[in-house]
TrEMBL record:
Presence of the UniProt keyword Transmembrane helix in the record: no
Protein's recorded name: Serine/threonine-protein kinase BLUS1
Keywords: ATP-binding, Kinase, Nucleotide-binding, Transferase
Lineage summary: Eukaryota, Viridiplantae, Streptophyta, Embryophyta, Tracheophyta
Biased composition (Low complexity): 473-493
Domain Protein kinase, residue spans: 26-287
Residues that, per the record, bind ATP: 55
Positions with biased composition (Basic and acidic residues): 522-532
Top-rank taxon: Eukaryota
Alphabetical list of Gene3D superfamilies matching this protein: Phosphorylase Kinase, domain 1, Transferase(Phosphotransferase) domain 1
Length: 700
């Protein structure tokens, strides 16, 4: 048995207690909590006659490197702040790691809400809880740590109403290596609290990711649940990336103060550089109403059953609910499984596929951009390994934090963060993560053909994200068309080899030259710096109506999906009615829909950008300007009125909203038809599909 922290401090006070590092010195009482790979018990530390909490982590349920876990456990021991749960000590026993912590008798805010405040806490309680959390965060950030899992379930309350941020350290380490999502049970977190830049993982993130999670937690405490919590993880990702940030905007939120709404709005800004630091947030007027810990004890703990009993009751309640809903849950699971097996779920992130689309052989210049585009999604450990020198993607990334530097001085390079002002970038990323485009990469002989059968035959060559599965999937891939993780990783390496130019197992469009190919993971600025002007010809329109199957066109999507150079109008391969059902079951139709829509968005962005530059040059030019040199020399200036530019611009801007609507409609359609397909109800063209009509008119 090995252990650390034998002489751990006893809570930062003068008294220092020696916590033993032998299992025999602890008597485990009842279970008081469960995480993905750990069970937490109330326990007695016999030599000290002190009640403690013991978190028992099962290595067999994790893939984490033991050294990492130990290191993190050690970090927990070094923590010394009244608002962060520290570890007294830790040690291993067989296949388990025991982390000894102070016992937080109130349990987590989530448990308290579930037990007695299902619709959330009152504002003064929230302000008090959040102020304490912010103090803890300020401490962590100041010491170069990002918590990365701020949520009500990790805000613990002690017997006197003291508030501490828990789950820092060990589980964050586990999070890195993806184990949270390995266990497929109800305890697995969804990305509801995850900041957009963490989801994107294109350029890393810093302590401000915690501020986003903090804002989501504020909403969680106000409503009793986090925004989007009823949706499946992938939808949450998509919604977080695409939708406006959530807030206290509903009728039911009228009871909350303006200060509260403002405070949340400050946290939930998609551009991390615009989020305040914990220190700055603490100065918000909202926190003036925060009260003492006694107030919390009174409001939250009085009359509350013991933690063990509460936990047990909640567990039983969950179990009986499960039993009651067994049938429908079974159905849901079935549908979910089917979705994943078929690979047509919109929540099936096909990162490899996207990467292979985007890279087109030559774009992977740095070690992160291609090889790890999916790994970087959540697996920071492997990212760290792949990251170029100097790019620290670890949880200590926030070493850059300087408490004295407030909002305007940002640890991250501003050019590397996503911005709400860059919808195309966001959408691109959303689609990179959320849009199923399996059908877009095919073997050579399928590439130019409209042969759906052929596409389906080769669906087994479509690489899928094993990481996605590890993190989010509800089922493993199986026989019908998708890959085992082994196969997937083989394919990943194939793709990587191809990216490096070692053979080309995939057909690459001639029309997208290496030079013109995008640097997918570059910043928005880089995006703008492209030297090759995109050719933008035509748009398309999706309107309710009927599918005009006869107007099937050859798929141009493979090329267009390179997302930077559009050599021709992205067209939609509309299946014949006979093929429609199988196409939909195969998902390729939706994939094409997503891709066409995505292409459209990007085109719009490029046009907007070009117009902006034109306006900046105080001139107007007919036709589509060069992206590389939008400022046409004065000799070539036309007399077109600048008014026409602004008219066009507003039209294009209006199109953005429409595109978002369309995206949601497609998602809905897919969900419904997936469900139908799962029930075996699809016979012939589904009604949903029949309501779609495509034309190549301007999107209005
Ligand atoms: N020190 C503690 N005192 C009392 N209860 C605790 C303590 N630590 C954890 N718990 C309870 O156990 C639950 C699970 O613990 P913890 O969050 O550390 O595990 P985890 O595996 O990291 O979970 P997850 O990753 O799902 O958040 C917590 O939500 C909380 O209710």
């Amino acid at each position: 048995m090995t252990g650390t922290g034998e002489k751990a401090a006893g809570g930062g006070g003068a008294e220092r207690r020696k916590y033993p590092i032998h299992v025999d010195d602890y008597e485990l009482y009842e279970e008081i909590g469960q995480g993905v790979s750990a069970i937490v018990y109330r326990a007695l530390c016999k030599p000290l006659d002190e009640v403690v909490a013991v978190k028992v982590l099962d290595f067999e349920r994790t893939n984490s490197d033991l050294n990492n876990i130990m290191r993190e456990a050690q970090t927990m021991i070094l923590i010394d702040h009244p608002n962060v749960v520290k570890a007294h000590c830790s040690f291993t026993k067989d296949q388990t790691l025991w982390v000894i912590m102070p016992y937080m008798a109130g349990g987590s805010c989530l448990h308290i809400m579930k037990s007695v405040h299902p619709t959330g806490f009152e504002e003064a309680v929230i302000a008090t809880v959040l102020r304490e959390v912010l103090r803890g965060l300020e401490y962590l950030h100041h010491h170069g740590h990002i918590h990365r899992d701020v949520k009500a379930g990790n805000i613990l309350v002690d017997s006197r109403g003291g508030i501490k941020l828990g789950d820092f350290g060990v589980s964050a380490c586990l999070f890195d290596s993806g184990d949270r999502q390995r266990a497929r049970n109800t305890f697995v977190g969804t990305p509801c609290w995850m900041a957009p830049e963490v989801m994107e993982q294109l350029h890393g993130y810093d302590f401000r990711a915690d501020i986003w999670s903090f804002g989501i937690t504020a909403l969680e405490l106000a409503h009793g649940h986090a925004p989007f919590s009823k949706y499946p993880p992938m939808k949450v990702l998509l919604m977080t990336l695409q939708n406006a940030p959530p807030g206290l905007d509903y009728e039911r939120d009228k009871k909350f103060s303006r200060n509260f709404k403002q405070m949340i709005a400050m946290c939930l800004v998609k551009d991390p550089s615009k989020r305040p630091s914990a220190k700055k947030l603490l100065k918000q007027p909202f926190f003036k109403q925060a009260r003492s810990t006694d107030f919390i004890a009174r409001k939250l703990l009085e009359g509350l059953p013991g933690l063990g009993a509460r936990y047990q009751a909640l567990k039983e309640k969950d179990e009986s609910l499960m039993a009651q809903k067994k049938m429908s849950d079974g159905k849901k699971e079935e549908i979910s499984q089917d979705e994943y097996k078929r690979g047509i779920s919109s929540w099936n992130f096909d990162m490899d596929d996207l990467r292979s689309q985007a890279s087109l052989g030559t774009e992977c210049e740095d070690s992160i951009s291609c090889k790890d585009s999916d790994a970087s999604f959540f697996d920071l450990d492997s990212l760290q390994e792949q990251a170029p020198e100097g790019l620290n993607m670890s949880r200590d990334f926030s070493m850059k934090y300087d408490a004295d530097i407030e909002n305007d001085v940002i640890a991250n390079d501003k050019s590397t963060v996503s911005s709400p002002d860059q919808p195309a970038c966001l959408l691109r990323n959303a689609s990179m993560r959320g849009m199923p485009i399996n059908g877009l990469v095919k073997k050579d002989n399928c590439m130019e053909s409209n042969d759906l059968e052929c596409q389906e035959r080769h669906s087994d060559i479509i690489p899928t994200s094993s990481l996605h599965e590890r993190k989010f999937s509800l089922s493993s891939r199986s026989s019908d068309g998708l890959l085992s993780s082994k196969e997937s990783s083989k394919l990943q390496s194939n793709i990587h080899n191809r990216d490096k130019g070692n053979g080309a197992p995939w057909h690459v469009s001639d029309e997208t030259s290496p030079e013109a190919a995008p640097k997918l993971h570059k910043s928005a600025e880089d995006h703008d710096d492209r030297s090759k002007p995109p050719l933008i010809r035509g748009r398309f329109k999706v309107i309710p109506g009927h599918v005009d199957f006869d107007k099937a066109q050859s798929p141009g999507l493979q090329k267009c999906h390179s997302m930077q150079t559009f050599s021709r109008l992205p067209s939609l391969s509309i299946p014949s009615s006979a093929e429609a059902a199988s196409s939909i079951i195969g998902g390729s139709f939706y994939m094409q829909l997503y891709s066409v829509l995505q292409t459209n968005m990007l085109q719009r962005e490029q046009i907007l950008h070009a117009m902006k530059q034109l306006s900046g040059c105080d001139m107007a030019s007919p036709g589509v300007p060069s992206m590389a040199s939008p400022c046409i020399p004065s000799t070539s200036r036309s007399t077109s009125p600048s008014a026409s530019i602004s008219v066009d611009r507003s039209m294009l801007e209006a199109a953005h909203e429409k595109e978002k609507e369309l995206m949601n409609e497609i998602l809905e359609l897919q969900w419904r038809s997936d469900a139908q397909a799962a029930k075996g109800a699809i016979k012939g063209a589904p009604y949903d599909l029949c309501r779609l009509r495509f034309s190549s008119d301007l999107l209005a």
